[in-house]
Amino acid sequence: MVGQHTYWKANTVVLQTSIFILNDGTTYVGGLVIESIKNTSIINSNFCDNYGHYGGGLRSINAMKVIIVKSVFWENKARQGGGVNIDTEQYKDNSTVLIETTLFSNNTAANGHGGACYLDFVTTCLFISISFQSNHVNKEGGGISILTSNVSVIQNTLFMSNYARTYGGGS
């Protein structure tokens, strides 16, 4: 989807083989907004050169389960969560985010946390076979910033050339 962001509100969303490119959500989100959806799956999709206030490529709010597999987040920009911004506060006692076999490259968070990924109120965070390359943030977490989580697992993941002005160039 070129030049226009997409907004969904439902119980379950499965997004496959989609492209979000050159979307501008100056006051909110660039590429895709998913709000109050219990189960979200994003598979084999690309989020490139999007701009938004929260989550340049993707913003997920109040989801119980978010799965991102075989996707690319490249050159997205936001105030917080350059590539992805996920907040599961509504399900903070029973939420899961799984990101697997995904590339985050050249994403920027201008004023907040998480150059590539910002997660808050997520019970369980799983990052498996991820590549975080050349992501930038002016505060904390060049690659990942996880604020509230009971369990975080990072497995077989590359952090390369990420930058954070204050803490955690990689995460």
Protein model, in words:
By secondary structure, this protein is mainly β. Helix content is about 0%, strand content about 50%. The chain contains no helices and 24 strands. The strands form 4 sheets. The chain has a 6-stranded parallel sheet, with no helix packed on it. It has a 6-stranded parallel sheet with strand order 2-6-10-14-18-22, with no helix packed on it. The radius of gyration is 14 Å and the shape is globular. Mean pLDDT is about 90; it is low at about 1-5.
Biggest sheet strand order reads 1-5-9-13-17-21
Q: What value does the average pLDDT take? A: 89
Note the gap between the termini.
Answer: 30 Å
Tally of individual helices: 0
H and E string: EEEEEEEEEEEEEEEEEEEEEEEE
Number of β-strand runs: 24
**Which structural class fits the helix and strand makeup?**
mainly beta
Strand content: over 45%
Radius of gyration of CA atoms, rounded to a whole number:
14 Å
Which overall shape is indicated by the principal axes computed on the Cα atoms?
Answer: globular
Uncertain parts: 1-5
Give a quick account of the main beta sheet: strands, pairing sense, barrel closure: 6 strands, parallel
Please give the share of residues in helix: under 10%
